[in-house]
C-alpha cells in the first residue's frame, strides 16, 4: 500500500510540474546580417555583437550569424573608433547594420 501511495504521489507531482506550455519554443531562430561603415559602406570585421551576456563577432567580411531562442533580440554593437549602437532585431531576416565612425 505504501508503494502505491508513493508512486501515485510521484505521478501527480510529475503532472503538476511538467512544462506543457505550447507557447515555449525550443527551436532556434537565426539572425543574419552584415556590418557596414555608414559613410563608406565598407564591411567591418571584428564588430562585437552582444546579446544579453553572450558576445559574438562579425567575421572578416563583416557577416554574422546568430542563433537565438526568441523572435526578437536587443543587440549592442561596438567597434573601436565607431559609435556604439543598440538595436532590436527580428529573427529570420537579413539586415545591414551600419555603424557611424566616431567624430573627431
Could you walk me through the main structural features you see in this protein, from its secondary elements to its overall organization?
With about 100 residues, this protein is of the alpha+beta class. It has a single domain, classed as Immunoglobulin-like (Sandwich), CATH 2.60.40.10. Helices cover about 15% and strands about 40% of the residues. It has one helix and seven strands; from the N terminus they run H-E-E-E-E-E-E-E. About 10% of the residues are buried.
Number of strands: 7
Global mean pLDDT: 83
Helix and strand element order: HEEEEEEE
State the domain count: 1
What's the assembly state of these chains?
A: single chain
Radius of gyration: 22 Å
Which fold name fills CATH's third level, the topology? Immunoglobulin-like
The CATH homology group name: Immunoglobulins
Q: Indicate the proportion of strand residues.
A: 35-45%
How much helix is in the residues?
10-25%
Strand line-up across the major sheet = 3-2-5-6
Could you say which structural class the secondary elements and strand pairing correspond to?
Answer: alpha+beta
- Point out poorly predicted stretches: none
Q: Quickly count the helices.
A: 1
CATH architecture field:
Sandwich
- The span between the termini is 81 Å
CATH class: Mainly Beta
Taken from the alpha-carbon principal axes, the silhouette is: elongated
Major β-sheet profile: 4 strands, antiparallel
